[in-house]
Amino acid sequence: MMFEILVQISNQFSDKGQEEFIIHILKKRKYCKLLKIADLVNDDPKVREKVVSYLRNIKSIDDMDLIIALGMAKEGFDWPFCEHALTVGYRSSLTEIIQIIGRATRDSENKTHAQFTNLIAEPNAQNDEVKVSVNNMLKAITASLLMEQVLAPNFKFKPRFENDSEPNQKGELKIRGFKPPSSKRVESIIESDLNDLKAAILQDDLMIKAIPGNLDAEVINRVLIPKIIKVKYPDLTDSEVEEIRQHVVVDSVVKNGHIIESGDKKFIRMADKFVNIDELYIDLIDQINPFQKAFEILSKSVTTHVLKLIQESIEATRIEMTPEEAVILYKKIPAFKSEHGRMPDIGSRDFAEMRMAEALIFLNKLKRERENG
Length: 373
Hints:
four-stranded mixed sheet; Rossmann fold; 14 helices; 3 domains
């Protein structure tokens, strides 16, 4: 494509009253189309801050067409009108990938489709090996997203000491033998880097072979995971590594678990066993493969069908509906399908259609729970 700079505009002014050109307008020669382009590659912090300020105040789809950025693409502003996020080069940080994808997946009236493209250089290897490697990376990312977004609510994990019979407070989970963070460094990793650490674990070659069940769960939890943590954070002491290891394992196992209430007690289902949530031990949790469920779901190719199931699982955790309402809406679905030639779409802008789609997901979730219960 050939472009020529037509003019530069800005609604930002310097202290001297002179206009500073922070947003470029380019004209495409063939179609005479004007494109507004924001440059976040500029090293001048003052100019960059003014560009970000402009982006933070975008109100219309016509306010911006293209943003070129380095690190700023993952933080600092929101752009719901974005339809396509394109990155160049491999991203080792799962958090960064999520942030960049988030630029293109905000709800907006201008789009029904959003796309994320990552251009990476093909390594010097056979094509089959490249395909396997890339597919494993995608599975690791998808499995991490699945475990973070779909499964149980977040808990704050605490140790349960001897003679502590107090029930868990809302939002916390006490575990016997659990080691709390002993340093600011460990706290920072747990609070900010847990997604990245899980991504590193899920992409480790030995873990990829072990996770489907080819290795004892305790070996995975007590041997392989600490090794990966030490490689990623070589500055940590053995005690700090153990604290992080326990948090990774507990967080993953609990999010893979299914919590139910029976009377005044709560139970968590882990590896086909129901355990009183007030009687959890770290030794018991270490006997469970924390990532196996995610890889069982992703053991095949990451197809559209698989992603649809993941989306439905995510939506199922957000739907607020009674069984009575779900049954009423479910009875209306055959007439909808007959009229439109398709099932209700949960992404529809029509509220009635969306609720029918939610009812179907809700009832499927209840059916699975009864079958597994």
